[in-house]
Amino acid sequence: MPEGPEIRRAADSVEKALKNRTIIDISFAFDHLQGYEEILRGSTVTRVDTKGKAMLISLDNDQVIYSHNQLYGKWYIRNAYTYPKTNRQLRLALHNEKKSALLYSASDIEVLKNGEEEEHPFLSKVGPDLLSEDVTPDDLFARFQEKRFQRRKWTSLLLDQAFIGGIGNYLRSEILFVAGISPFSRPIDCTEEQLYRAAKACIDLIWRSYENKGITNDPALAEELKKKGKKRYEYRHWVFNRE
Question: What is the set of domains in the chain, with CATH numbers?
């Protein structure tokens, strides 16, 4: 499943293609959404946000297109009305005079009114998004010690989207390695130093992955290994998916 950095990079691409441009055509694959096509056609995209692994495309008519890629969803940005060669199923297409933003394979798509995000089953519960919200290590340090979180094992806690939005398997492994914490321990078992290292690692690694196209390893080391002919999976992470 794509994690927060992958969704944020996809959102950047969608925003670059659509922001401040009029949607001249839009199509939904799902019958229950097709009634929105006429409502959304002619509107202008004002911004594209992320909340954990969800994407929110805001329009100037107070409508918001919500999507969650889940396991297989993938965005493609193409010249207007051109499509990739793929066996995936097209679920959502937004077209302006220059570009098309195409979402394939995703099944979790909704149209919300501006403000309804606060009542949405996923959005209302998801934790802080470290890529779109001003979250500091001190904020996370305090969050780790909240009663609802402090007695849960790190291995499951970090995957709970209500804890921190956007963390998945590879970020979990990398965060615990960099912080020097056993995945089977709990926040309450950790020293203050470990908790602060974990807080800093959460922020540093999710941003490093976002800025370096999925690489969580030290960028200089990754580049050195790449020049030596190592494959991407051998230099991308510190520990995830490595023997």
Answer: 4-119 (3.20.190.10), 137-235 (1.10.8.50)
